[in-house]
Amino acid sequence: MRVPLSWLREFVEVPADATPDDVYASLVAVGFEEEDLIGFDVTGPVVVGRVESFDAEPQKNGKVIRWCQVDVGESEPRGIICGAQNFLPGDKVVVSLPGAVLPGPFPISARKTYGHVSDGMIASVKELGLGDDHDGIIRLAEWGLDPEVGTDAIALLGVDDVAVDVNVTPDRGYALSIRGLAREYALSTGAAFADPGMREPAEVAPGSGFALTIADDNPIRGQQGVTQFVVRTVNGVDPSRPTPTWMRSRLLLAGIRPLGVLIDITNYVMLELGNPIHGYDADRLTGGITVRRAAEAEKLTTLDGVERTLSAEDLLITDDSGPIGLAGVMGGSTTELGDDTTNVVVEAAAFESVSIARTARRHRLPSEASKRFERGVDPLVAHAAAQRVVDLMVELAGGTAGTVGTDLTYAYEPLSIALPETFAADLIGVPYDADLQQRILEQIGCGVARTETGFAVTPPSWRPDIVDKWSLAEEIARVDGLDKVPSILPTPPSGRGYTRAQQARRRVADALAAAGLVETISFPFVDEQSNALYGSASGDGAPAVRIANALDQTAPFLRRSLIPGLVATAHRNLARGVTDLSLFETGAVFLPEDGVTYGTDFNPPRAARPSDDDLDRIHASIPPQPRHVAVLFAGDVSPKQPGRPAEAAGLASALDAIRVIGAAVGVTIDVAQTQRVALHPGRAGMLTVAGEDVGYVGELHPDVAGEADLVGRVAIAELDLDRAIALAPSRVTAGPLSTYPAATQDVSVVVPAELPAADVRAALVQGAGDLLEQVRLVDDYRGQGLDEGQKSLTFALRFRAEDRTLTAAEATEAKMAGVAVAEQRFGARIRD
């Protein structure tokens, strides 16, 4: 919000010697952010001159220039070259003399041009920064000015004013006005403040003839779309009258382009009071005004010349001919104020914020009006705003206040908030006594009554952001000074911290990073082919979730696997010359249940914690989102070194990563051969924990890797991390370290080739009993000496007792007990 200082001084006592930096400091002290300093950048001698005479001189390039003699209040006229053709002898103009600097910067000096020495420049609107018009110079008579020759034109045109620009957060819509920021300056400095919103409106006789109907049959969230609608009329206006220079300069500093005196007045009052105003040409209205919702696909051409197709949620201003404006957003072209307007209908209203915000976004039509309505406009200022417009049109446009008008006002029910006396101090950490709290709350406009426990506070109508005692405590801290809030780190309550699942996920990420893998993050959006190719870690065939408003139409589905993101990351790195890759990612995947429809139009209540039923509805509207972990290896996992060849990535690399994950989670992850569409046949394994499928590991099929431009072997693995954590023991107790030596033995057993080694290993573990400390698969042999369809699995066994040194016989007995279980289950036999 840009605030011209001359305008600010009308409503609050700003010291005459206060600089823009002083004003900034005062506003920053109450929570605003400094943005920029806005000025006209005009300095030096710029005065009023009178054109005494001129000679028109045609040039070789076809241009006609005027060699002017201009009286600037000195003893002799100055000779000035001017290319404009819109002035006559005797006209008073604005003259920039040598030494002046105009916006650009553009310094003025006496210089020879077109065969003359031009001793200054006659200025246009654009050259002074007062607008975009560059068709001719300023004729002061057309601006309603007749100053003395030699008068300082900088002060005359208001270009000596300056505006401070502050950032207004969305919850403080009241500050999008001079009224609001003047009040904030007064809060910060203690200066006297005169509220311009307290002007008394003129009375309009009941039943004065203007029909107004509110017919909102489709309220948003059950709230009426309009809470106040005031209509006043002004007759006999002259739209050709110039906008006063003080108003023009203030509008420009505030970022509003002057568009003619009638529209300038409505914009001026909007900036002053924060209530957007709309003016209608009364002679173009058909009948009275009706406020209603649009019919679906109804049409309206707005002031920007665009025909818009309306939604049934759009709130309209209509007359008997149909729509004449999008309420709170932009007016329609059929009733706009023009050069031939003589009678004006002035509208000042308060609209429901959510309805206006939805309409502005639906039509991609942000406006100064919608920006204020969607943040909340004072519902009690419309009368004062309408009256202010009427008064200015009478004063500046030569109109007469009409007796026709009407208004509709719903009863305003102010909120009452109970504020315990010690609440603000306990929350903020600063001692606030009762008198200080009451004084601050009254300064911001609240009604305050003392109670036995504290205060009963009624927020002002212009502060819809104050809804509870926390809001009041924030206001007390803000006005008293945020610099007084101590920097004290709060003491966390005992028993808090990461959950078991969060701790396990962090252990997994830390362990993989320590093992040399690099963590990546990818977007959760994929195409349909990727979801079908990689599926999910559990291998189920659930459908994918399609996004209704996808950011990228080539990837409109939510991912069911992390592998597509890792493959895309690998492709991007290879394209940039990084060939050796060890990557991992942890993140959510989206696995909808077959036959369940997700999504809901349910809107939970605002400014309140949703109930348990509300939360259940919200959770039911989204698909399950388990967290997975995935790894990818490509290139070399160990580079070539002196005396040692490079070690290429492969299935073993992915299996090592799976072991790292299992150790971090605290589970044993078994691998059994499987088949998956994206994986190389014979190099794919299903991962299981306690007999439950939790993921897969393998090498990408060469065709799949080739389509992604990945060269060589690419090993991948993906694991349902949440499920693995759930299957892990809730508590792991470390056993004592035995001081006795271990006994090691190997055993080779012959089993059917299709039998998973993990099943054989489990049988050995069960049969060997408590003496078995560790078992590892060290060889898988198939070939000469074995029947077709058989394989030989060699396991390294390590035995240890806690209370004695084991004998070889004891170790052998335990080993053979394990072999016996394998023989019973699978027909295993010891290899000869």
UniProtKB/TrEMBL annotation:
Its cofactor is Mg(2+). GO terms for biological process: phenylalanyl-tRNA aminoacylation. Coiled coil: none annotated. Mg(2+) binds at D465, E474, E475. CDD domains: PheRS_beta_core, tRNA_bind_bactPheRS. It catalyses: tRNA(Phe) + L-phenylalanine + ATP = L-phenylalanyl-tRNA(Phe) + AMP + diphosphate + H(+). Residues 40-154 form the TRNA-binding domain. It is found in: Cytoplasm. Keywords: Aminoacyl-tRNA synthetase, ATP-binding, Cytoplasm, Ligase, Magnesium, Metal-binding, Nucleotide-binding, Protein biosynthesis, RNA-binding, tRNA-binding. One of its GO terms (cellular component) is phenylalanine-tRNA ligase complex. Gene3D superfamilies: 3.30.56.10, Bira Bifunctional Protein, Domain 2 (3.30.930.10), Ferrodoxin-fold anticodon-binding domain (3.30.70.380), Nucleic acid-binding proteins (2.40.50.140), Phenylalanyl-trna Synthetase, Chain B, domain 3 (3.50.40.10). Residues 412-487 form the B5 domain. Tetramer of two alpha and two beta subunits. Belongs to the phenylalanyl-tRNA synthetase beta subunit family. Type 1 subfamily. PANTHER family: PHENYLALANINE--TRNA LIGASE BETA SUBUNIT, PHENYLALANYL-TRNA SYNTHETASE BETA CHAIN AND LEUCINE-RICH REPEAT-CONTAINING PROTEIN 47. This is Phenylalanine--tRNA ligase beta subunit. It comes from Microbacterium faecale.
